[in-house]
Design brief:
This protein is of the alpha+beta class. It has a single domain, classed as protein bp1543 (Ribbon-helix-helix fold, Orthogonal Bundle). The chain is built from three helices and two strands. It has helices at residues 30-42, 47-57, 64-85; strands spanning 13-19, 22-28. The protein has a two-stranded antiparallel sheet with strand order 1-2.
């Protein structure tokens, strides 16, 4: 099995999103973009709205992209726990 070295470039994808009137670029792995698209579909909104919600609810000083990653993981973790409880 091939283990990537630290010099192996990542496959991050950069996209522009809007947080209210402000445009910013976000770099995420393709899998996280797909997970974010799935969240937006489930929540009947677009990715920009999810990004605005994440930005508005940030309590820690840190990067927006990091907060977005945490949101994605937490969203699907809670969804998985709900399905186990059902």
């Amino acid at each position: 099995m091939h283990k990537p070295s630290s010099s192996t470039p990542t496959s991050l994808i950069t996209r522009n999103v809007r947080i209210g009137p402000k445009r910013t670029s976000v770099r995420l792995e393709p899998e996280l973009w797909r997970a974010l698209e799935d969240i937006a579909q489930r929540e009947n909104c677009d990715i920009n709205e999810i990004c605005k919600r994440v930005s508005d609810n940030r309590t820690e000083k840190g990067g927006f992209t990091s907060a977005l990653r945490v949101h994605i993981v937490n969203y699907w973790s809670h969804a998985a726990m709900k399905s186990l409880a059902a």
